[in-house]
Write a structure and sequence with these properties.
heterodimer; A: 116 residues; mainly beta; six-stranded mixed beta sheet; four-stranded antiparallel beta sheet; B: 115 residues; globular
Amino acid sequence: AQSVSQHNHHVILSEAASLELGCNYSYGGTVNLFWYVQYPGQHLQLLLKYFSGDPLVKGIKGFEAEFIKSKFSFNLRKPSVQWSDTAEYFCAVNAYSGAGSYQLTFGKGTKLSVIP
Amino acid sequence: NAGVMQNPRHLVRRRGQEARLRCSPMKGHSHVYWYRQLPEEGLKFMVYLQKENIIDESGMPKERFSAEFPKEGPSILRIQQVVRGDSAAYFCASSPSGLESDTQYFGPGTRLTVL
């Protein structure tokens, strides 16, 4: 079975600080990797995704993530955070389930608070 | 270009009542997934449906929960005889067919509170 772990439950940063959120997954086969963001009071939005090719993936709003296969990791980064980045961030993986679906397995999420 | 729609956004039920949660996928999407988020937990997969078919229900509790996606109308997640442990946020996601079928787009969720 797949599993995803996010290392930090809550991260507090000042504006302009650099961000790195850790994500490790457990699965023996080929996976697709995602980062979703949930702003306060809003629904989950796709930040970026990795399917294949260049392991450094760029997403919206200046976010990027690097897939390191040997470490089973897909860490999210942003060089300089803004107050508007305050949100909860979820790492997810999917793989063909064999039962016909590409169900997502999520980490527990990391709450990011950016202080002005 | 409407996204995934869910209603109601908030639902309050007393123990023993039924809860019906609706999900309208994005236009052109024929795949629907339901997930449940308990407090302080990540989202957990429940069921995957295509029109008129349940494809994968490996995450559904064995009793009281059912889902459908009829030919016409929204997908419905139904919880019979709700208990306090059913209190959670329920999210629906949809995906298109073809090359982008691996990418799911989420609705705003329905927050169910069982009194």
